[in-house]
């Protein structure tokens, strides 16, 4: 909606030439609410249109299930083939961005020095202080940079917003043997988002039983592929990686890419809407509470306010 600033244009040039520092700076601009954030994305996408797309793998599972450990092991395999990877960690368990970065630095320590790996952590609250970070936008800028793989880590399950890892080209759900039996897992609905299931911590008792339960319980539905692994010692990760590659379907990747674009549009909308909602005054809310005004009408008035604010901004832009 706003044109590219000269600073962003210069950064984009360096970004297109493969400069990771420029990538980092552009990501920060997008994350921190630069007015030309969407223009940056559009320019990056245009420049990358003819390039091969990276494979985007969502890694999702409960806190502590071993997602970062698994990602670290996958990166070793990716790097051994000479391919490059970006990791995006969305960490809802930590209210502080710094905490998220620290934890992942420990887990993925070996890769922080490697130029073929780029790791970015987002706190789930976002730099803007809103409820959700601009994850779809961040993923899109990583997608256009020229990596071979993008690995997106989120706890995903149970979040109210659809999260971007769940619309990875392919989604790996990480479970643990001590998280309950197969019936509970199936009931919780988490299997719905999974293309592949990794039962990590197979060194703990119950992994074999959980794998058998899941295979048995998913009978009749498209069979879910279940792999047991011990990510902490790299066991079973090669098999999972091979399964990821053979499960890859260009048509599905295409569909999921559209879903990510949908999330991106929704994210902008949610930001505006959240700002309007949190700007509601005591008086307006009191009127609703006391039955003096109609809540739906109030929502419509907010929507109208938003529309006129945005058309004013657009006509202002035309004057520039
Ligand atoms: N026993 C066992 N422990 C493991 C295994 N893989 C990871 N862990 C441990 O599980 C803990 C959590 O691992 P992480 O990789 O940080 O898990 P995560 O899912 O990324 O956690 P969050 O990012 O906090 O949601 C760490 O202490 C790991 O060392 C495994 O295969 N077996
Ligand atoms: Mg982690």
Structural overview:
It is a single chain. With 320 residues, the protein is an alpha/beta fold. The protein folds into 3 domains: 1-51, no CATH class; 52-249, Rossmann fold (3-Layer(aba) Sandwich); 280-319. It is built from 12 helices and 7 strands. The protein has helices spanning 6-16, 20-31, 37-48, 67-80, 97-107, 135-143, 182-188, 207-217, 237-247, 250-278, 282-289, 295-319, and strands at 55-61, 85-91, 117-123, 149-154, 170-175, 196-200, 225-229. A 7-stranded parallel beta sheet has the order 3-2-4-1-5-6-7, sandwiched between helices. Mean pLDDT is 86; it is low at 94-102. The site of magnesium ion has 6 residues, from helix 4 and helix 5.
> What would CATH call the class of the largest domain?
Alpha Beta
Domain module tally:
3
Low-confidence residue ranges? 94-102
Q: What strand order characterises the main sheet?
A: 3-2-4-1-5-6-7
Report the count of strand segments: 7
Mean pLDDT: 86
Judged by helices, strands and strand pairing, the structural class is alpha/beta
Number of helices: 12
CATH architecture assignment name of the largest domain: 3-Layer(aba) Sandwich
What can be said about the biggest beta sheet? 7 strands, parallel
Give me the Rg, rounded.
Answer: 22 Å
Distance between the termini: 13 Å
SSE order, one letter for each helix or strand: HHHEHEHEHEEHEHEHHHH
What is CATH's topology name of the largest domain?
A: Rossmann fold
Strand content: 5-15%
Q: Give the bound compounds.
A: guanosine-5'-triphosphate, magnesium ion
Spell out the CATH superfamily of the largest domain: P-loop containing nucleotide triphosphate hydrolases
Helix content: 40-55%
Overall form: globular
């Amino acid at each position: 909606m706003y044109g590219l600033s000269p600073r962003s244009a210069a950064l984009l040039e360096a970004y297109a030439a493969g400069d990771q520092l420029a990538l980092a700076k552009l990501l920060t601009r997008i994350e921190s609410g630069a007015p030309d954030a969407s223009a940056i994305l559009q320019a990056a996408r245009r420049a990358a249109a003819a390039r091969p797309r990276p494979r985007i793998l969502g890694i999702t599972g409960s806190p502590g299930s071993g997602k970062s450990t698994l990602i670290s092991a996958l990166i070793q395999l990716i790097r051994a083939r000479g391919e490059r990877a970006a990791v995006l960690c969305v960490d809802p368990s930590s209210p502080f961005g710094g905490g998220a970065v620290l934890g992942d630095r420990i887990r993925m320590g070996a890769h922080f020095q490697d130029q073929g790996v780029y790791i970015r952590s987002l706190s789930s609250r976002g730099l803007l202080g809103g409820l959700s970070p601009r994850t779809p936008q961040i993923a899109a800028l990583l997608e256009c940079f020229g990596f071979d793989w993008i690995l997106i880590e989120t706890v995903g399950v149970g979040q109210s917003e659809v999260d971007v890892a769940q619309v990875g080209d392919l989604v790996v759900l990480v479970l643990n043997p001590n998280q309950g039996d197969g019936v509970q897992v199936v009931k919780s609905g988490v299997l719905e988002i999974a293309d592949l299931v990794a039962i990590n911590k197979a060194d703990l008792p119950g992994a074999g039983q959980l794998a058998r339960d899941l295979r048995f319980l998913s009978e009749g539905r498209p069979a879910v592929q279940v792999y047991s692994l011990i990510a902490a010692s790299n066991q079973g990760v090669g098999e999972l990686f091979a399964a990821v590659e053979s499960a890859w379907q260009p048509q599905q990747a295409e569909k999921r890419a559209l879903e990510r674009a949908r999330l991106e549009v929704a994210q902008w909308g949610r930001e505006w809407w959240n700002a309007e909602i949190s700007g509601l005054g005591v008086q307006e809310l009191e009127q609703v509470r006391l039955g003096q005004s109609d809540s739906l009408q109030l929502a419509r008035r907010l929507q109208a306010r938003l529309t006129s604010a945005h058309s004013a901004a657009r006509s202002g832009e035309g004057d520039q």
